[in-house]
């Protein structure tokens, strides 16, 4: 690590290290290695749900190719430790279980497919540009329907087995407690709370074209493919899950993920009439901050975390995101977009919220202002700890970042942060 670097990746907790050591020994003896094959994952999901139908699109060439490439990269490139391998297998089985339940519910309730996804609102800025704050402020608006973390983990509800509420909530609380134990420092970077709002990527994972794995594991062959392929199939699958969520609880869908920034034409094609809020911040702060978040996340899956490699990957990814978005907006209706600068959002959040409401053509009610003000008072900056990093931690220099993102900064008049 470079001299003066501030990123500190703590080792995994002792129980995880002990588990990895014992499990790794068993692997070398040919015992207990979680299988990451299409057939084994499908069998596990079918056993878990008692369902068979994965939908016609599961066997189409695009989805087959996506899953095949993902599994190959996980096997050959991700350098998963035993605990990480078990977690990713469980995640993939969960994605398949969601597909099974989606097909079962859609067959039993044809009205799901008939759900209107009217004028959804999407936040599409780079990560670390104030998108989480904006997402949670807008979540105070009763007309908007954000994705809850517990819904994102299991958007298709299983049969109720208890009388004291939706069992998905209890599972999400367990997952939150586990993450707090395994990576308490992560909450200073990005709070993950069972009942909080979460990213659209949780709904996109089941397409096997989601950027989640791309972000949290070194899978370069899969990453290169993902950023070169038409994202239409993923967005159409995502829309089906949005309809399923609106069937469970209505409202105007409020979504958020940096991945939308790279795919604005597809987003607006699949969600006609969508309103898109694009956030902006000095890339010299954004890129290393996101790299730090990903470094902490990768430790949960692998003992090998290459900070310089992370710097190269996410420098390129975020440059592609803003470049693609600028190019796309030359050909898309400007009435679909509003730009919000991080500096303005931090200086006067409610002023920016009023600008957004003007863009949406909505009245901002005093009760909503009160809810937003209450949220701001209860959640000051650095409430969960200070996120420390430098660009040099990831082999990135200020001059390089300024030069590479100059066109983007000039186009939007983005203020330089010290």
Q: Features of this protein?
A:
418 residues; mainly alpha; 5% strand
Describe the structure concisely.
This protein is mainly alpha-helical. 54% of the residues lie in helices and 5% in strands. A five-stranded parallel beta sheet has the order 2-3-1-4-5.
Outline the structure in words:
By secondary structure, this protein is mostly helical. The protein has a domain of 290 residues: P-loop containing nucleotide triphosphate hydrolases (Rossmann fold). Helices cover 54% and strands 5% of the residues. The protein has 19 helices and five strands. Strands 2-3-1-4-5 form a five-stranded parallel β-sheet. The chain is globular. 39% of the residues are buried.
CATH topology of the domain at 117-158 and 165-412: Rossmann fold
Structural class: mainly alpha
**Major beta sheet, specifics?**
5 strands, parallel
Q: Percent range for helical residues? A: 40-55%
Number of separate helices:
19
**Termini, distance in Å?**
23 Å
Low-pLDDT residue intervals, each spanning 5 or more residues: none
Shape: globular
Order of helices and strands: HHHHEHEHHHHHHEHEHHEHHHHH
Determine the CATH superfamily of the domain at 117-158 and 165-412. Answer: P-loop containing nucleotide triphosphate hydrolases
| CATH architectural type of the domain at 117-158 and 165-412 | 3-Layer(aba) Sandwich
Strand content of the residues, in percent? 5-15%
- Which radius of gyration do the C-alpha atoms yield? 21 Å
Structure summary, number of beta strands = 5
Sequence of strands across the biggest β-sheet: 2-3-1-4-5
Task: Give the overall average pLDDT.
Answer: 89
């Amino acid at each position: 690590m470079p001299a003066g670097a501030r990123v500190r990746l703590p080792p995994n907790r002792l129980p995880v290290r002990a588990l990895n050591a014992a499990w790794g020994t068993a692997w070398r003896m040919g015992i207990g290695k979680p299988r990451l094959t299409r057939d084994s994952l499908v069998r596990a999901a079918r056993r878990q749900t008692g369902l068979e139908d994965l939908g016609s699109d599961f066997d189409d060439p695009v989805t087959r190719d996506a899953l095949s490439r993902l599994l190959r990269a996980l096997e050959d490139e991700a350098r998963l430790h035993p605990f990480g391998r078990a977690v990713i297998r469980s995640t993939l089985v969960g994605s398949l279980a969601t597909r099974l339940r989606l097909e079962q519910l859609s067959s039993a309730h044809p009205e799901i497919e008939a759900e209107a996804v009217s004028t959804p609102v999407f936040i599409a800025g780079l990560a670390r540009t104030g998108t989480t704050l904006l997402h949670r402020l807008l979540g105070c608006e009763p007309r908007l329907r954000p994705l809850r973390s517990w819904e994102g983990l299991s958007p298709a509800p299983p049969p109720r087995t208890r009388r004291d509420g939706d069992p998905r909530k209890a599972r999400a609380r367990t997952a939150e407690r586990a993450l707090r134990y395994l990576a308490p420092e992560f909450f200073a970077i990005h709070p993950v709370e069972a009942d909080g709002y979460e990213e659209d990527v949780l709904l996109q994972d089941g397409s096997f074209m989601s950027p989640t794995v791309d972000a949290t594991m070194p899978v370069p062959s899969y990453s290169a493919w993902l950023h070169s392929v038409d994202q239409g199939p993923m967005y159409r699958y995502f829309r089906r899950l949005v309809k399923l969520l609106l069937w469970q609880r209505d409202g105007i869908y409020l979504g958020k993920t940096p991945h939308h920034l790279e795919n604005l034409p597809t987003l607006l094609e699949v969600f006609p009439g969508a309103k898109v809020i694009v956030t902006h911040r000095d890339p010299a702060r954004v890129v290393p901050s996101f790299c730090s978040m990903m470094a902490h996340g990768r430790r949960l899956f692998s003992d090998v975390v290459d900070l310089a490699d992370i710097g190269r990957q996410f420098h390129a990814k975020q440059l592609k995101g803003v470049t693609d978005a600028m190019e796309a907006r030359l050909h898309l209706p400007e009435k679909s977009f509003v730009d919000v600068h991080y500096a303005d959002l931090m200086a006067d959040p409610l002023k920016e919220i009023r600008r957004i409401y003007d863009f949406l053509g909505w009245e901002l009610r005093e009760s909503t202002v009160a809810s937003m003000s209450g949220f701001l008072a209860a959640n000051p900056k650095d409430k969960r700890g200070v996120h420390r990093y430098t660009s040099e931690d990831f082999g990135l220099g200020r001059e390089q970042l300024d030069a590479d993102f100059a066109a983007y900064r000039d186009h939007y008049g983005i203020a330089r942060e010290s």
